[in-house]
Amino acid sequence: MLNHLIWILILIYILNRVVGWWILVYSKKIGWIGSIVVIITAVVIICLPIVPQPRLYSLGSSGFIAGVSIGIFLFTNGLIFMIRGDKEFHKSGTKPDNIPTKLVTTGIYSVVRHPQYIGLNICFIGWSLVWNAIYCFYLIPMIIFLNWLQAFLEEKYMLKKYFGDKYAQYKKEVGMFIPHLRKSNK
To answer: pTM for the full model?
Structure first.
């Protein structure tokens, strides 16, 4: 049976996302509440694999060594994605947890529109492999879907509204989570 703590963490994650969506759609200012939403998301994703649950492989097995190695690789690369996205935001003079003042289309944002959500998803998968947490692998599709929904709502209620045609053109040229294989001709 799934541990009660896992259900509590899942509920906190979902409620946290709902608060984030409410702020995004109905609030004129994100500010510090947006930062709290991001922190809660990170804490829940870090805690989920640690709670008691069945494990994929036993300690000392070659599967454990391979799983941990792959997990560390994925987690590290997910962090790199998130850090590069955050740096690109700050370099442009805007912050990712506020109403955007500028459309960021350079650096990693010239390849994908939401590198921080990609990074978060990759981090969660890697972290789950490090802890070999079986229930987390059941939750990965839900977390990826919630991150996709968050990105979709940001595009619909914020980016499209603030940047109009410029954003529509950017959206045609750059994939949401997966890079376009061909660049469109300008």
So the answer is: 0.82
Structural tokens at position 70: 């792959």
- Of 4, 2, 31, 19, the closest CA to residue 146 belongs to 19
The number of residues making up the chain comes to 186
pLDDT tens, N- to C-terminus, the chain (186 residues): 556 877 788 888 888 888 877 776 676 556 666 677 778 888 888 888 888 888 877 766 777 888 889 999 999 999 999 999 989 988 888 766 666 778 999 999 999 999 989 999 999 999 999 888 888 888 889 889 988 988 898 888 888 888 999 999 999 999 999 887 655 554
Is 87 within 8 Å of 109 (Cβ atoms)? no
| Cβ-defined contacts of 54-63 (< 8 Å, 24+) | 54/134, 54/135, 55/131, 55/132, 55/133, 55/134, 56/132, 56/133, 56/134, 56/137, 57/132
Residue whose C-alpha is closest to residue 53's, from 109, 4, 102, 86: 4
| Through-space distance between the first and last CA atoms of the chain, rounded to whole angstroms | 55
What CA–CA distance (Å, rounded) separates 79 from 118? 10
